Amino acid sequence: MRLTNNQIQSIRQLASQVAGARSRVRVFGSRLDDAAHGGDLDLLLELAESVENPALIAAQLSGQISRSMGGRKVDVLLMAPNLMRLPIHEIALQEGQLL
Question: Which CATH number do you get for residue 55?
Answer without folding.
Answer: 3.30.460.10
